[in-house]
Amino acid sequence: MDIDALAALAGNTIVAATVTDAFEGLRTKVARIFGRDKSDSRIERRLDETRQQLNAVTPEELGSTQASQARRWETRFADLLADHPEATVELQALIAELRPDVPNAGGNVTNTMSGTVHGGPVLMGRDFGQVIIGGQDDATGS
């Protein structure tokens, strides 16, 4: 995994975990990663601020606040990894601890649709590539 992808994953993972019961352990571990095995009080303070901000917003504001905080942490992690590439292993271990691999992660998915569709298709899914419905002439508008 490249540094940018790892930093983004770490930012999102850390922000998601700040509002869980795992926060205290997370706080200590992240501060030690940034402090290179010593506690970094600035990082602890920033994590505390992140948690306070997330806990203070309304449910409607939560998504945008999480995204904003994740971007900030992504930048911090990218800077850390650029200066200390050896922190990659520690960061990956922390992410794995916070986001354990789940066998059969796909699980069971159930979707229910009701109502009617007149004159058009209904698509339900994820990660669509190029989708053409009908003939090629329909797709090009000819």
Task: Summarize the SSE layout with pairings.
Blueprint: H1 3-17, H2 23-34, H3 41-56, H4 59-83, H5 87-98, H6 136-140
Question: In words, what does this structure look like?
Answer:
- The chain has helices at 3-17, 23-34, 41-56, 59-83, 87-98, 136-140.
- By secondary structure, it is mainly alpha-helical.
Outline, from the CA principal axes?
elongated
Q: Please give the radius of gyration in angstroms.
A: 21 Å
Assembly type of the chains comes to single chain
* Topology order in helix (H) and strand (E) letters: HHHHHH
N- and C-termini, Cα separation: 43 Å
Strand content: under 5%
Mean pLDDT: 83
Number of contiguous helices: 6
Number of strands: 0
Low-confidence stretches: 101-108
Descriptive labels:
single chain; 142 residues; mainly alpha; 6 helices; 60% helix; elongated
Quick synopsis:
With 142 residues, this protein is mostly helical. Helix content is 60%, strand content 0%.
